[in-house]
From TrEMBL:
Native source species: Frankliniella cephalica
Transmembrane segments: 12-35
Gene Ontology CC entries for this record: signal peptidase complex
Membrane topology: Single-pass type II membrane protein
Annotated localization: Endoplasmic reticulum membrane
Protein name: Signal peptidase complex subunit 3
Presence of the UniProt keyword Endoplasmic reticulum in the record: yes
Keyword annotations from UniProtKB, A to Z: Endoplasmic reticulum, Membrane, Signal-anchor, Transmembrane, Transmembrane helix
Amino acid sequence: MHSVFGRGNAMAAYTLSVLAGLTFCCFLSTVFLDYRTPATINTRQVVVKSIPDYSASREKNDLGYVTFDLKTDLTHLFNWNVKQLFLYVTAEYQTPSNEFNQVVLWDKIILRGENAVIDLKNIHAKYYFWDDGNGLKGHKNVTLTLSWNIIPNAGLLPNVGAIGSHSFSFPPEYTTSRV
């Protein structure tokens, strides 16, 4: 009546349907959890230079140098559905030429099983803090924020911001020293 291939196909389809249903139930068990946690960020050194940006044009643009401290405990974010966390610190500010500027300064990946307590001192920015003009010199309101993406086993890829941020200002003069 039924061939071996027909029975094999029915078994495979049923198995895949059950696995998809179980995966969806697993996703539902963690989708409504609150993944926010407090973080403390403080700046140590803030200077700005005016140097040519040869990657875009030869005109001089502002380049900010920021060192900061970062402290937070992310251990409670790991549950059975979290494979890893992708952390990043962004600087957000507003200039006359751009209403919203956001620059990633530092990032880190924390795998499940690694130490998720972050207590770093005097971190140098991992990426350049370029402005597309002269908007950093004397800027009074630059905000550093820690955020993370949760890489799950099943489900959505949420982007979560930490509770707390740090605002600082750049000096009104360019520095001429090496940083």
